[in-house]
Amino acid sequence: MTEDLTPAEAYAAARARNAEQRTALAPFRELYDFGLDPFQIEACQALEAGKGVLVAAPTGSGKTIVGEFAVHLALTQGRKCFYTTPIKALSNQKYADLVKRYGADKVGLLTGDNSVNGDAPIVVMTTEVLRNMLYAGSQALSGLGYVVMDEVHYLSDRFRGAVWEEVIIHLPESVTLVSLSATVSNAEEFGDWLDTVRGDTEVIVSESRPVPLWQHVLAGRRMYDLFEEETDHGGRGASRREVNPDLLRLARTENTRTYNPRDRRRGKMVREADRERERRQRSRIWTPGRPEVIERLDAEGLLPAITFIFSRAGCEAAVQQCLYAGLRLNDDEARLRVREIVEERTAAIPTEDLHVLGYYEWLEALERGIAAHHAGMLPTFKEVVEELFVRGLVKAVFATETLALGINMPARTVILEKLVKWNGEQHADITPGEYTQLTGRAGRRGIDVEGHAVVLWQRGLDPGHLAGLAGTRTYPLRSSFKPSYNMAVNLVDQFGRHRSRELLETSFAQFQADRSVVGISRQVQRNEEGLQGYREGMTCHLGDFEEYARLRRDLKDRETELARQGAAQRRAQAASSLEKLKPGDVIHVPTGKFAGLALVLDPGIPAGRTNGHRGFEHHDGPRPLVLTAERQVKRLASIDFPVPVEALERMRIPKSFNPRSPQSRRDLASALRSKAGHINPERHRRQRAAAADDREIARLRTEIRAHPCHGCDEREDHARWAERYHRLQRDTQQLERRIEGRTNTIARTFDRIVALLTELDYLRGDEVTDNGKRLARLYGELDLLASECLRDRVWEGLNPAELAACVSALVFEARQADDAVAPKLPTGNAKAALGEMVRIWGRLDALEEEFRINQAEGGVGQREPDLGFAWAAYQWASEKSLDEVLREAEMPAGDFVRWCKQVIDVLGQIAAAAPKENSTVAKNARKAVDALLRGVVAYSSVG
Predict the structure, then answer these.
(1) pTM for this predicted structure
(2) How many helices (H) and strands (E) are present in the chain, helices listed first?
(3) Contact, 856 vs 805, CB < 8 A?
(4) pLDDT (tens digit, 9 = 90+) per residue, 233-244?
(5) Rounded CA gap, 519 and 515, in Å?
(6) Which pLDDT belongs to residue 869?
(7) Rounded distance, CA 152 to CA 565, Å?
(8) Under a CB-based contact definition with an 8 Å cutoff, are residues 442 and 403 in contact?
(9) Which is nearest to 912 in space by CA: 900, 923, 928, 899?
(10) Beta-bridge partner residues of 80
(11) Is the pLDDT of residue 276 over 70?
(12) How far apart are CA 102 and CA 608, in angstroms?
């Protein structure tokens, strides 16, 4: 091609090549056997020019090349580079990659579990580790030149996102920051903030996927393309894509019932014909079974595939269904290779634990090329699945959405069974961002020419909605930053209160809040113009209509208030009646799903609380645990008792009764029906409405009738304008409050936290007390509770197993609230200490209310300790067998290991923070770590 260049162009090209040869990028490019993409080159050049970079690009596009160039630059310049990731699995993966390239002597690893060569020039770590190093002023920070923050969009995570902002704000100015993010719609806004807090930052956004993605819907035997290819608009690269009309026709046909109940009068023959037509229609359109889908993809050469099922149990069931269907995706050679790798990776697992862990069933599925992948699996098992999948020895994986969070497991095809998932509170549609994240796994760079995303047909599927999900490639990055108690003492210790406040004002959360205020202010101005027009519309020639409208509103508000008071009074009476219930009372549940006869097993009154306490609101009053006449054991709420309830009869509850046993429930329910089935509860009589005798209502009605505007012929027209005026005025006042609330929000929260810590003697002005220095070493949601327990010597005298049980309450959170039975607890000292921890939490909770620190609104504060893992931690630390512990805990092995590792992490913090003199806590915390770190917990490298 050079012969086509003019002499001047050839000379310029030669100069450019020579200039590039003198850069650090030239030798770096030679490390790869493929050419770099334009966005990668642009980012690397910005880095070499001394700028920070934010790279936002789709999953699988090769963003990490930019991070690896920062590593290359650090080694070239004789400086350090920290490579941070959000999860330990990613840290382990990146560590292995960098060791392969640079050697074990130049690369270190620091996670909650592992510390390998921490003084190396290149250290891979979780983001929390770097945050802790910054607060501790670690010597390892000297000589640090670059920090790579992989998956920086985790900043939106409401539980851990604040850590990313803390690191970005507190890194020394001399450190160059490399931020790698999924494609987000507000990358420029995030880049502007980075420019503000970190200096010159280049924002590089790439929208294009390295491997084209085709979207499909699988219905019955046919695979439909979601979009029709429009050659008039450039084929697959078209900027405008239309939904496949065949798919739209299918949706209209399938979602319209063909049988009309009014046709019943036409006789049996018509109904039979209708049913036959429906049967023929269904024979063409159905949701294919899981084995059928995998067989279909295998036949079309679309494996390996990841099927996303938003349920752990669903993933395991899918594997079993494939096994029962006789599905085999591996030949004999691949089966032998699988067995060899699995036996090598699991050699450290004690033989007696293998059966407990379901090892043999898991191995059989792996040998057939099939596996599940979810957080409930043993970490070692998950690692093996990942390795086999990458090697092509597992071809069908059924996974929960956690697999989409950064683990390098690309596939040729991604399958979504449904577009609805449980978000912890309700079943909700997946968002465009979640859809992009999940389908981003499809298409392996350098292997596949194209990737495929397949959505299984479900009745009610809307192709237009699916096209919206598939066509929206981006989602906004929203800050989840909030100050914490630990953050406050660390900041004040380093910078003093005033400077700390200023630092928090530079957070991305405040940056976004300040920007949003501009738009709200414009809306307020528009509203004020509208108010003037409405004021003219309600003008009445007979008098002041604004005054008349206010009287009408006052009357309506008074009537509403009295109705609310009446409802509150009835609820209070009902709550009072619930507090009088005792185990063995037979009651009639007046309404709700479980209306009817019921036996009280537990009154459900929270221990150590009173009605005036905020914690009681969380529980919404007493929540009795009852056995219904239909044999169900349920925890009821106040909503089930709109009227007071009283015991109709008394029954003895056998000591042997087990609410988890169907036989126990059946026997007791039968006795309940025999004892009280004939009793009819008295109907509750409604009281006279308070409004009928209210003097204020009588006065307002008199004034309204006497007002001049009451006789106006156009009164109701004026009233409509007045209502619009009032509504817009109320909206405007809310906007003005939002402006006031968003200004300095982070700093105000920080001030409240500092005031509470001052009250508890953790801070005295700019001085951090000994109590505060202890709190500075404790990280986690319940940092202040842990510190108060140390100060009050709650854990003194506990043995290691008892201490492990107590510390578990600081980290454990049940996936779903199990109100059926109270958690089993260790007896003796441990039980007393756990009770004292709950009491201290109650005291802190009341203090937070006093200082207006609200966990529900601001996400700041101490949640109630969860005792659900205490028995399992105690048993494991007491050297009980894995079989016994898992059976009693009713918990998957993966969850058990993960919670144990979190307990170990906090025990390590407590060992460092506990007093060294006249205390056994530090010594027993270290012993508890040793007691927990055995068996499955010890040999699982990822937690």
Answers:
(1) 0.69
(2) 36, 26
(3) no
(4) 333 344 457 888
(5) 8
(6) 92
(7) 49
(8) no
(9) 923
(10) 144
(11) no
(12) 59
